[in-house]
Amino acid sequence: MDAQQAAGSGGGITRFGGTTIGTQNFGGNGGVSNSSPSGLGGSGVGGAGGSTGGATSSAGTTGITVPQGVFAATGSMTTARLDHTATLLGNGQVLIAGGDNGTHVLASAELYDPAAGRFTATGSMATPRFWHMATLLGDGKVFIAGGTSDGSTSLASCELYDPVAGSFAAIGSMTVARAAHTATLLPSGKVLIAGGVGGNGYLASAELYDSATGTFTATASMTTARNVHTATLLPDGKVLIAGGGVAARTLASAELYDPSYGTFTATGSMTVARWGHTATLLLSGKVLIAEGASSNSYPYLASAELYDPAAGRFTATDSMTGVARVFHTATLLPSGKVLIAGGDDGINYLASAGLYDPGAGRFTVTGNLIAARDNHTATLLPNGKVLIAGGSDFSGILASAELYE
Description:
By secondary structure, the protein is mostly beta strands.
């Protein structure tokens, strides 16, 4: 796979596995929860993050306070990869699937065991892929959808990972081949697959996967074609679709999918057009939209905004402290704060991280990543820590992983 330049015009960053599908660099992962690459942005229903960063806790009975909000090394993945997915399984392990290692696209997968602090190989996917989506289903299996095997042709194929058997099995194909799309688990148990880029260009189409019947059916199309957007399941069961891009045009528009009627309707637009951003559902029911890029050129965005479902509009909130970024992750912590980690600013890979406090409406700096990285994944573990895995930096594709605690 040819390396391609990042979107920033001043960039010293070479994007490993950059797309040839469209004109924007569509390789970034967001902080997705129930739809994980770790995916392209939206945090879902319980898309929680990790520790209570920035707090202190007692160490046994000694009375010593141990500062939190730091990153610590854990075992490395068995294979270096970026643009992979990371999905928390019902047994507390994390499934890492697919991605790109800089020379070829991966079908391999592995499991992270928080108790042991190490990764071990599991069965491989039927098809190598990246820019795919991974969604944990109600039965504990993981639904893998679409992506690309070569950076130029989108896939319609899908497969299921069975944690009990430790293997993937190919299932039916989507009605439309797509990559850089979103996949959101609905309260009904169906999965909403929306947008992306396919053989006919940028997609407005959407479809539903029914795991009970194993079938795909078309639903209404979005009001606007888009990819590298975010999709966030709201408390009322609707799905917020925000931003993204179409060719060289970045979108500020947003829309809502209503499963009851199977339709998309426009809602208020973001205050700033952006792609490569993250979307995180807060405990209040509002959605935090953070950073990203407003065009294909440097500089990127440090700004953030909140979507209020009751009012149907976005309002600006505090900006990330001093650093604009894309291809970062955003993880809701048990404290209700949001951890923003890594990414790149078009010139440098970033190790910096920050916390958004919804109560104060402010960002504060927290500890730095051990390794600067973008296009990585971030997964909240049952123990409250956040697993950061893979991505890329100036040295190439990373196998390293670390924990935020």
